[in-house]
Amino acid sequence: MERSISHFAISREEDNYILHFTDDDGETIELTASFDQLDLIAEAIDTALDQDEEAELGEDEDEEVAPVDSED
Q1: Is 67 a domain residue?
Q2: Is residue 43 domain-resident?
Q3: Contact 45, 31 (CB under 8 A)
Q4: For every one of its 72 residues, what pLDDT tens digit does the chain have, with 9 covering 90 and above?
Q5: What's the CA gap between 64 and 53, in Å, rounded?
Q6: Which positions ≥6 away from 29 have C-beta within 8 Å?
Q7: pLDDT of amino acid 5
Q8: Where is 41: in which H helix or E strand?
Q9: How many domains does the chain have?
Q10: For residue 22, what are the domain limits?
Q11: How far apart are alpha carbons 40 and 68 in whole angstroms?
Q12: DSSP conformational letter for 33
């Protein structure tokens, strides 16, 4: 079942980053990511938002967002 994010935070720990997600029920999940993984996530978010913006303007409505996999 999908959960909605009610809070998000990011912190740094040595060479990695810790992503903290809290859902509407107050449950928290912490995920560790490298700089390269966060860069891929940021690129995927930018792509998805750009495509949504284009769809709102009536451009490239059939284009799908490709999943991003990390090899780390």
Answers
A1: no
A2: yes
A3: no
A4: 889 999 999 999 999 999 999 999 999 999 999 999 999 999 999 999 998 887 777 755 555 666 666 555
A5: 13
A6: 20, 21
A7: 95
A8: helix 35-56
A9: 1
A10: 5-56
A11: 7
A12: E
